[in-house]
Write a structure and sequence with these properties.
This protein is an all-alpha fold. It is 66% helix and 0% strand. The protein is elongated, with a radius of gyration of 18 Å.
Length: 71
């Protein structure tokens, strides 16, 4: 088993959605529902902020070779 975890780095987006949901929940008087909605929005938006793959062919080839060695 590989000992290194792969983090996507999108936890801050989910936390931002939870904070927004909590703020709306306090304003609306129903924190539970709005907190859940905020987390769901954060989870839905998280893939939009992931790192893009390398654009140049040389970088893509190096990245592909690196991925194959890790498997």
């Amino acid at each position: 088993m590989n000992g290194k975890a792969k983090h996507s780095g999108t936890g801050w987006i989910i936390a931002l959605g939870a904070a927004l949901g909590a703020a709306l929940g306090v304003a609306a008087g129903n924190i539970g529902v709005w907190l859940a909605i905020g987390v769901a929005i954060g989870v839905a938006l998280a893939p939009l902020f992931r790192k893009q793959k390398p654009g140049c062919p040389e970088c893509a080839a190096l990245h592909g070779a690196h991925q194959e060695r890790q498997r």
